[in-house]
Amino acid sequence: MKHMNEIGVRALKQNASQVVASVAAGHPVTVTMRGRPVAELVPLTEDRLGMLVATGRARSARRDLASLTPPAPHSDVPSLTSVVLQERRSERY
Asked: 36-90: per-residue pLDDT in tens?
């Protein structure tokens, strides 16, 4: 059986081993019932992120995190520490 994207329930019953082998090879399969998608078979992965990527709920990073430059400091915006200290000084006890 060739690589498939969709398969009906009847065909899945008749070719379960081949469909599972295709999914295990990394090819997700959508199961349909009367032409409407009802389930999706996706290969299992070891990590949670890999599973999310395989199901289309996340995508792989476009580039390495280490290659990103740190954000430029905003000189016109006070630091959180200075804001908290100012608030503490202005409080009454």
From this structure: 999 999 887 778 888 788 788 888 888 888 888 888 877 788 888 988 998 988 8
| Contact between 32 and 8 (Cβ < 8 Å) | yes
Full-model pTM: 0.48
Q: What residue spans define the domains of the chain?
A: 1-60
Residue among 66, 64, 46 nearest 54 (CA): 46
For residues 82 and 73, give the distance between their C-alpha atoms in angstroms, rounded to a whole number. 15
> Is domain 1-60 given the CATH code 1.10.1200.120 in the classification?
no
Distance separating alpha carbons of residues 47 and 29, to the nearest angstrom: 20
Distances (CA, A) of 58 to 14, 40, 52, 73: 32, 16, 5, 30
